[in-house]
Design a protein that fits this description.
147 residues; 2 domains; 18% strand; rod-shaped
């Protein structure tokens, strides 16, 4: 028969700290150390594309606000007479000074690559027509436009 032993047999996979095989926790690695090299590259490219799209859309919105509110006025409505369009701000500024000396109220604002020079503010097109007729003598390409 089998004799009774005085000691107990240890289990094969014991989790007691005395067994020497116990590991308190598995070492956790960061997200970037677990992914492969090409995956890191793809994630960085996607992140750059996302940042580019967001910054572009914010820039477009800022540009819209600047284009539609020249010189800090927030509620421009109605019509004006467009005198000319310049690529250079200096030329537009000189022409605005000439118009101001003649007694007109010039308004210059940026539209794309151009600086648009306009004169007067009117509630409708009919009220802008007499000024258009007067300015067409000096500026051949005048037209009435919406603000």
């Amino acid at each position: 028969m089998a004799e009774k032993q005085d000691y107990s047999q240890g289990e094969l996979f014991s989790q007691s700290p005395e067994s020497g095989q116990f590991k308190g926790h598995i070492a956790r690695s960061s997200f970037f150390t677990r992914i492969r090299g090409y995956e890191k590259t793809m994630l960085l490219i996607m992140l750059l594309v996302l940042i580019s799209i967001v910054s572009f859309s914010l820039g477009v919105e800022k540009g819209k606000r600047l284009a539609f509110s020249p010189e800090g006025s927030s509620s421009l409505s109605g019509y004006t007479v467009q005198v000319a369009a310049f690529r250079s701000r200096e030329l537009a500024g000189r022409e605005a000074l000439i118009l101001a000396k003649k007694g007109f109220s010039p308004l210059a604002f940026a539209k794309g690559d151009y600086v648009i020079l306009c004169v007067g503010r009117f509630p409708n097109q009919k009220s802008a027509q007499p000024l258009l007729n007067q300015l067409q003598k000096a500026y051949a390409g005048c037209r009435i436009r919406r603000l």
